[in-house]
Amino acid sequence: MEITFLGTGSAYPTPTRGASCIIFRNDGNYWMFDCGEGSQIQLMRSSIKPGKISKIFVTHLHGDHLFGLPGLMCTISQNCPDHSEPIELYGPQGLRRYIRTSLELSRSMLGFDYVVHELMLTDIMYPPDWKDWKVDHESQGPLHPNEKLGENIVPDEQGVWQVFSDATLTVKASWLTHRVPTVGYVIEEATTTGKLDCVILKAKGVPAGPLFAKIKAGESITAPSGEIILPKDVLGPAKLGRKVVFLGDTSNSENMMSISQNASVVVHEATLENEMHENALEKGHSTPAMAAEFSKGVNAKQLILTHFSQRYRTVTQETNDEETCKSVKKLQDQAKDIFGDNVLLAEDLVTIPVHRTTKQCS
């Protein structure tokens, strides 16, 4: 399991930082989180093949998280003509209309089908000034020729969407405070069954095969002697699954706390330094202290900062004026003051592994 950062800058892409885009990989799954302008260029610079992407999760409909999406879909179509499985997209209400309209107005046909699953919004999820420029998020007209109708996913009473689930991974989302409706996503890996002690089973006369599989699945079995063997007698401790939290732009992440507890990794924006706290709030963004407080509050093992204002130079970028062109390392230091040492700075085209916790289920 690993996270590759394709774009770590805020607002717009620059020669040193792309707009927001992340690839999450687990086994053979490649999932994209946000797709700002220029993301496909960053993707081409990486070792990740566009045709591997099967799901795309969008946190909100601001351009620096979204404008690269129609172009990416067209590029995948041109470069991967054998892409047989539909690409599934998830995001706040309005994503379906945006994708459909962009592809239709440009008369873009794709070599694969796509599905947009929308996270339905409630009144509390809109910013207070939404009524001043209210935009209709409802998808209109017929489906695009390559579009299959997706689900409208309704949040529960706690404001949590059950986004996706299979035998290995579960994805949930909850809402964040920003200038447009915004969500954060939590990916949780299933707990893995402990190692089977084949030596004990064979000593009891149990042949390898279906009975091994049965007790591995948690069922009791009967040995040839008639002895009942319980799973706890031959299975080692189960391994806890990993949990990765991706937050969109946010000036208040408290609604994400319940589903983010004990995260292996929190990826949190830190657009501006602590001294610019009021400016950050006004623009719907976070400081390193805000990111650190959230991560500490959910007992996260690691915090990765991203979505940096382009005013900050990268760690390796040289400058003749360090006073006015501050290093992004200042943001890392401010987060460490609260969270501790395990704070990383996301960098474009850098991959960070998600390690398993050493703790095991009892």
TrEMBL record:
SUPFAM superfamilies, alphabetized: Metallo-hydrolase/oxidoreductase
A Gene Ontology molecular function term of the record: 3'-tRNA processing endoribonuclease activity
Gene3D superfamilies named in the record: Ribonuclease Z/Hydroxyacylglutathione hydrolase-like (3.60.15.10)
Family annotation (InterPro entries): RibonucZ/Hydroxyglut_hydro, RNase_Z/BN
Keywords: Endonuclease, Hydrolase, Metal-binding, Nuclease, tRNA processing, Zinc
Cofactor(s) recorded in Swiss-Prot or TrEMBL: Zn(2+)
Cellular-component GO terms for this entry: nucleus
Database matches in PANTHER family: ZINC PHOSPHODIESTERASE ELAC PROTEIN 1
Known partners and oligomeric status: Homodimer.
Protein name in the entry: Uncharacterized protein
Organism: Owenia fusiformis (Polychaete worm)
